[in-house]
Design a protein that fits this description.
alpha+beta, Immunoglobulin-like, 7-stranded mixed sheet, 5-stranded mixed sheet, 14 strands, 24% helix, 33% strand, elongated, binds copper (II) ion
C-alpha cells in the first residue's frame, strides 16, 4: 500500500484547492506588512491613536472585518468607490494628490510628513477640499473617493501631526490576482515536478 502524499487523487485535490484559493480570494489581502489590497469598495471608519496614527476599520463585502489597522497603505481598485469617515473628535482626514510625495518620507505603515506648513499641505489636498476632507465627529462626515490610476496620500490636516500619514495607491488590476496567479503557477509547477518524479 502506497503512503505517498502525491498519489493521483490527492494531487488533484491539492491542485483544486490551490486553484480555488487563488481565484476566490477575499476582497482584502495583506500584500506585505502594512500594505492592504482592497479590491471592492468598502466604508473605512477612522479612529486614531493619539496624534501619531490613524486607525482604519472596515468590513469586506463577504464579512471579514479589519480592526484598528495603523496607517495602512491601501491598494485600491479603479472603478470601486471607497468612503472614509472619522469616528472620533479632532484629527481631520484629508486626501492629497501625488505632489505630496515631495514632503512625505518613509515606508508602508510608517510614512511621515516632512513639513508642518499648512499652506503646503493644503495645496496638495484634492479639490474641492471639503469633498476630500473627512471632518471629525461622533460620527464625523463621510467623504467618497472615486479615483483615477495614481498614487494618493492621506494625512491629518493638523500641521504638527506629521505621523498621521499614509498612502492610497490606485491600480487597475488587483495586486493579489497577479501575485496569487504567479504563486499558484509556481506551486503547481513544483507539485507537478514532484509528482512526475514520484511516478517514474
Ligand atoms: Cu491629527
Amino acid at each position: 500500500m502506497s503512503t505517498s502524499p502525491f498519489t493521483s487523487t490527492s494531487f488533484k485535490i491539492v491542485a483544486c484547492l490551490l486553484f480555488l484559493s487563488a481565484v476566490s480570494h477575499a476582497s482584502t489581502t495583506l500584500v506585505s506588512p502594512s500594505r492592504y489590497a482592497v479590491t471592492q469598495g468598502v466604508a473605512f471608519t477612522l479612529n486614531n491613536n493619539g496624534a501619531s496614527q490613524f486607525l482604519f476599520n472596515w468590513t469586506d463585502p463577504e464579512g471579514t472585518s479589519w480592526t484598528n489597522i495603523p496607517n495602512p497603505t491601501l491598494v485600491l481598485t479603479l472603478g470601486q468607490t471607497y468612503t472614509f469617515q472619522r469616528i472620533s473628535s479632532f484629527h481631520p482626514f484629508a486626501i492629497m494628490n501625488d505632489t505630496a510625495a515631495n514632503f512625505i518620507t518613509g515606508t508602508d505603515g510608517a510614512f511621515v510628513r516632512t513639513t508642518s506648513d499648512s499652506t503646503t499641505i493644503n495645496a496638495a489636498i484634492l479639490t474641492p477640499t471639503t469633498d476630500y476632507t473627512a471632518q471629525p465627529g461622533t460620527p464625523g462626515n463621510t467623504i467618497s473617493f472615486a479615483q483615477t490610476i495614481e498614487t494618493y496620500w492621506y494625512t491629518c490636516t493638523v500641521p504638527s501631526h506629521t505621523g498621521m500619514t499614509g498612502q492610497l495607491s490606485v491600480i487597475a488590476i488587483p495586486e493579489p490576482s497577479v501575485v496569487g496567479l504567479v504563486a499558484m503557477g509556481l506551486t503547481l509547477a513544483a507539485l507537478g515536478r514532484r509528482f512526475i518524479l514520484r511516478t517514474k
